[in-house]
Amino acid sequence: MGSCIIVGGGIAGLFASILASEKFDSVTLIEGSEKCGGLLKSWKNKQQISFDFGTHILSETANDEMNAILFKGIYEHPELWNSFDVTKVSNSFSGKIYDEAQFIALHHLTEVDYKLALSELLLAPGRSLDEAKNLYEYAVDNYGPIITNKIFRPLFQKMQQAELEELHPNVHIIFAFNRFILSDTTLSKALKKIDKFDSKLAFSSYYDGLSGAKKFYPKERGIELWVEHLCEQAKEKGVEIRLNTQVAKINSDNNHVTQVVLSNGEELNCSQLIWTIPAIFAIRAAGVDYKSSVKPEFCPMSLHHLVFDSPFLDKNYYSNINEFDCDGFRITLYPNILDKKKSNLHHCTVEVLHSELSGNALSAKLADELKALGYVEKNAQLVQSDEIKVPMGFPKFTNEFVNEKVRQVDLLNDSFKNMTLLGKASKTEFFVYGILQETFDAIKKLAHYE
Ligand SMILES: Cc1cc2nc3c(=O)[nH]c(=O)nc-3n(C[C@H](O)[C@H](O)[C@H](O)COP(=O)(O)OP(=O)(O)OC[C@H]3O[C@@H](n4cnc5c(N)ncnc54)[C@H](O)[C@@H]3O)c2cc1C
């Protein structure tokens, strides 16, 4: 069925290339950098210790066909992978770590606020995402004023440098602020049987409500091992991977993309174009008439890869730092997910979305925060720190940003009948599993892939 060109060799592009290879005569994957993987690449410090860009613990999906492709390398090489039944996550809020769930424990509020927050949450009138103009409207009608003003507002000021009134109503889901834990686990379990409370309350432990899906992380190194498995599979399926090149121009005829011209001048004919990098680059390469009304803003994100001289006190795989006055927002604790027999390192990655500081000064502040919160022993020494800046990592999910993204994708869909926009060009998805499901559904539909 002709030739398929896929732009962007992140997880979306790689998965798309394997799926597309079942249907198209030829599939070419165009990756701008020297390696595939995008945000799933790993990074090594000068002692050759591996770190990831954020937390990436894999989980089987509910779809066997997707699992067979995504985890083929893992099923074939179990000796290289740790496998878990539970993703162990903690979170800290109000200066205390809740060590069996990623969601905020409401009872970490003061007793007065907790009682008020609970009654407001139970009595909240409710409002759908479509009916809410912004996150404030959604939050106050679904969770009540205490949670909105004492949790959502300061946390979003920290995470997004924005007020709730500017943000898109569903952005709280991205940060796992959609559910809360109650001190009374029996009450919580009973309430979770009622739909309108189930979506707002979390199980008090990650051992409750398990799906049976296996979770994976490499025994050694980092998540890039998964990318290597997928690249191998793509090559076995005949996908041609072109590295260090970009699409300079998109040629079309009668609302169909016919050819892409690469940055080295090479022309590749194509019957289907799959675009997984931001839609604006396709608009520019195709010369589509478009005026942007908004400039997307990104959080000035940085990752701090830290090595301590003593073990972590939290035994979870990662933890969300929901503290208003801390710069870190998540910590990945590698010793807890790597093979203990093969690693005696005490290394972690702390993600920061915004800080007045940078470099060593910020790493030192983060180390102090981790000690104060109880992730690291008080007398532990920070023996190595590296900062990686990710300037375009996390967007500010304002209404304008989300609406503009939709406008760009709609414009391209109207302009070209054979262009599919996925991954970074997705209208709605941001996280890996949303992206993978959307990619699977789109290519299956596109190519009548049965
Ligand atoms: C710090 C951070 C933490 C995250 N944590 C999580 C998490 O905990 N859980 C989760 O599910 N998701 C997380 N995400 C989101 C997740 O990483 C992304 O959803 C996912 O990796 C996106 O995959 P992608 O293929 O769409 O894009 P990317 O991974 O960005 O890949 C795009 C690829 O396209 C290439 N490219 C770019 N421009 C061009 C060009 N002009 N021509 C050719 N190639 C080009 C890039 O080099 C890259 O390889 C996180 C994101 C960030 C930034």
Report on the structure:
- The protein is built from 14 helices and 22 strands.
- It has 450 residues and is of the alpha/beta class.
- It folds into 3 domains: 3-41 and 223-295 and 397-447, FAD/NAD(P)-binding domain; 57-62 and 84-97 and 210-219 and 298-394, Polyamine Oxidase, Chain A, domain 2, CATH 3.90.660.20; 103-198, no CATH class.
- The strands form 6 sheets. Strands 8-7-18-19-20-17-21 form a 7-stranded mixed beta sheet, with helices on one face.
- The longest helix is centred in the last third of the chain and has 17 residues, at 399-415.
- The radius of gyration is 23 Å and the shape is globular.
- The protein starts with a strand and ends with a helix.
- It binds flavin-adenine dinucleotide (FAD).
- Flavin-adenine dinucleotide (FAD) binds next to α1 and α14.
- Flavin-adenine dinucleotide binds at residues 7-13, 30-33, 38-40, 53-55, 246-247, 276-277, 281, 351, 390, 393-394, 423-424, 430-433, 435.
- Residues 12-279 form the Amine oxidase domain.
- This is Amine oxidase domain-containing protein.
- InterPro entries: Amino_oxidase, FAD/NAD-bd_sf.
- GO terms for molecular function: oxidoreductase activity.
